[in-house]
Amino acid sequence: MSSNSLSQSSWLRSYYFVRALFSVAWIAAAILLRGQPGAIAFLLVIYPAWDALANLVDARVNGGLKANSSQALNVVVSTITALAVIAAVSDSTYAVLAVFGIWAIFSGLLQLYTAVRRWRHYGAQWVMILSGAQSALAGGFMISRSLGTAAPTILDITPYVAFGAFYFLLSAIWLFVAAYRKADA
């Protein structure tokens, strides 16, 4: 493995840890602030906005947006989603959940593609592949819930965020262990 690959792998581990920590903080805030509509609206907008920023930074570190078309598209999709959530928040919780569901499908498929592409260079991407696939499936579930009769709340989105946190943390740990084993070999 070249020194550039090692630094990129180190970046990826750190990136995954930061993504997991952000998600855990978001979940804690969602639970603590669930009765405060303004705070909830902010959390609902900030999550896809964070995803856009995280994909932008990661793509730039890994060769730029042109070299990472799936992440470039994810930046666009997540930014549009943040704007759509702003509009949906003033409409209904059903609309917000539908927007999150559509976003989860698109961002999940784009994450899956990014992970498959990265597998050749860094390995240990099976967790991100699984995460992307589950995100797409969760999106379908969120859309079906948005068509139901029970009024959705932010707690309908927190399991999605929790699984994301778990997958990012597991990926970071997996890459750390893989690097440790290579160093010992």
Automatic annotation (TrEMBL):
<feature type="transmembrane region" description="Helical">
    <location>
        <begin position="95"/>
        <end position="114"/>
    </location>
</feature>
<feature type="transmembrane region" description="Helical">
    <location>
        <begin position="160"/>
        <end position="180"/>
    </location>
</feature>
<feature type="transmembrane region" description="Helical">
    <location>
        <begin position="71"/>
        <end position="89"/>
    </location>
</feature>
<protein>
    <recommendedName>
        <fullName>DUF308 domain-containing protein</fullName>
    </recommendedName>
</protein>
<keyword id="KW-0472">Membrane</keyword>
<dbReference type="Pfam" id="PF03729">
    <property type="entry name" value="DUF308"/>
</dbReference>
<keyword id="KW-0812">Transmembrane</keyword>
<feature type="transmembrane region" description="Helical">
    <location>
        <begin position="12"/>
        <end position="33"/>
    </location>
</feature>
<feature type="transmembrane region" description="Helical">
    <location>
        <begin position="126"/>
        <end position="148"/>
    </location>
</feature>
<keyword id="KW-1133">Transmembrane helix</keyword>
<dbReference type="InterPro" id="IPR005325">
    <property type="entry name" value="DUF308_memb"/>
</dbReference>
